[in-house]
Amino acid sequence: MKEGPRSPDVQGExxxxxxxxxxxxxxxxxxxxxxxxxxxxxxxxxxxxxNPVYKRFVSNLRDAFxxxxxxxxxxxxxxxxxxxMWMGEEVYSHGSRSESLAFLLxxxxxxxxxxxxxxEEDELEELLEVLHEARNVRREGDDLVTIxxxxxxxxxxxxxxxxxxxxxxxxxxxxxxxxxxxxxxGAEVKGLPGAPEADExxxxxxxxxxxxxxxxxxxTVKKEDFNPSLYALDPDEMEYLHEELKKEWxxxxxxxxxxxxxDRLEEPESRERQEEIVGILRTLMPNLLSRGAVRSAARVVExxxxxxxxxxxxxxxxxEAVEDLLVELSxxxxxxxxxxxxxxGAIVPEPDDLVALFRHLxxxxxxPLLRTAEVVEAPELTRLLxxxxxxxxxxxxxxxxxxxxxxxxxxxxxxxxxxxxxxxxEAASHLARLMESDSExxxxxxxxxxxxxxxxxxxxAAQRALSDSSREVxxxxxxxxxxxxxxxxxxxxGEIVTxxxxxxxxxxxKIAVFEGYGRLGGGEAVAxxxxxxxxxxxxxxxxxxxxxxxxxxxxxxxxxxxxxAALEKAAEExxxxxxxxxxxxxxxxxxx
Length: 592
What we know:
Layout: H1 8-13, H2 27-46, H3 52-69, E1 75-79, E2 83-86, E3 89-93, H4 101-106, E4 110-115, H5 119-122, H6 124-136, H7 144-151, E5 156-160, H8 178-190, H9 198-213, H10 235-250, H11 253-265, H12 271-290, H13 294-309, H14 316-329, H15 332-344, H16 351-358, H17 366-375, H18 379-395, H19 397-403, H20 409-422, H21 428-433, H22 440-449, H23 456-464, H24 471-484, H25 489-497, H26 501-504, H27 507-521, H28 526-534, H29 545-558, H30 561-569, H31 576-591
Antiparallel strand pairs: 1-2, 1-4, 2-3, 4-5
Helix pairs in contact: 2-3, 2-6, 6-7, 11-12, 11-13, 12-13, 12-14, 13-14, 13-16, 15-17, 17-18, 17-20, 18-19, 18-20, 20-22, 22-23, 22-24, 23-24, 24-27, 25-27, 27-29, 28-29, 28-30, 29-30, 29-31
């Protein structure tokens, strides 16, 4: 199907009758629709329907359609092999056929599509499902046209051509009689190079006459005249050719080129060639990452590191060139762009390829890795990024310590979590200073690190955090101190449980503080907790129910005979909250 020139009819089909000035077309809006559709289709492949990332892409696509409908009544788009055309202008193309929406439509025979208003509300996610199924979950015999026919969508229309029917024109006119057809064919043969001469034709006529005499009509074609075995292939040969063709089409030429470069790089007798090859690879790396070829990029890095590790291959200049490449690859700009592509779903590499690439990054990559790990919604990617930072910190701990002093709260919080996971004692003083940060997330991360990083400096800082202005930080401080068994904090917790402020706190904070006091105070805390659970004031009034319940849970953490006796006194308590807490404390003591 060939595209004709723009005409009033074509413009009318697009919902823009009479619009003759190309500059007035909402071309940017239409381009944005198909660019956003490409991203939404990628998100559909990567995320569950309830995932916030997927919902954001679908919402963006709905907004893009709504914006277009403000200017046009419908979108009539021509489908070409490499692009989509609207009003004679290209509105979509993609460098990779495997990812191209245009090629997905074209290869199954679709030559134009029409999108109607309301698609974004009624059939948008169904359209994404159809395109995804056509690309990835195809059953034997299915194609996109079949899937669309089964769905019978009202606001997505299309026309298509049958396989083998495109570009083939049937002759028109009256049918030729058999005799006329034979004469015509004979005349054509005479004009061809190597046609038989007149005497040869006469001999043929004589042979034909003899054939007639023998009972066979002249010009009859016999099955015996053909020997199909001369040209036919048996099934095994056909299968072999098919498999070889598949291998050839699937072969990654980029890998072959890289292999050739690495073979030449390992020839130390040509230093100039080595320098040139490293320069080529350095130029190639951003291109590989931008195209999502993470596997090839990882291979480049691993091969360079392996070659550099062999002292007899590269000279000092070559060694420094490789190190410069690794530092450049680890820059915040390069790593940040790669991480944005991962987060948006623009590229979806294999986890092993990412691991292979990330393991060789340098300190410059730490801030963007930490920042992304704090905000990304994919748990596996978060884990991979933190493991990468930990791997960098094992070789260059100063990179992580520097991140703890960053002005970006996300980077600092992420660095604190990684330092805690590593149990990095060198970071204790840096983590203690985080308790003075203006960011609640940073202070909380610093307090949480006290559980895994053994340090009296850090524990003292966590004790001071019991008076923090943030409820979350106070709760984390109480739990961290109890977790590490920091005895000096028992006195401060005792002051809190008998003070006025704790009575205004919510139940979660009460339990965290009281249980921390029970764990750290031990037997010395029983008298105070017994009084809070069972005692009465001057006016014969007991403590509030939440305070008494928290005291009961704290006695359960003490676990001594005196603590059990105090709990049994309240076993028949009328207040349901207190009675439930007492029962839980007694059961916990027995289980322990």
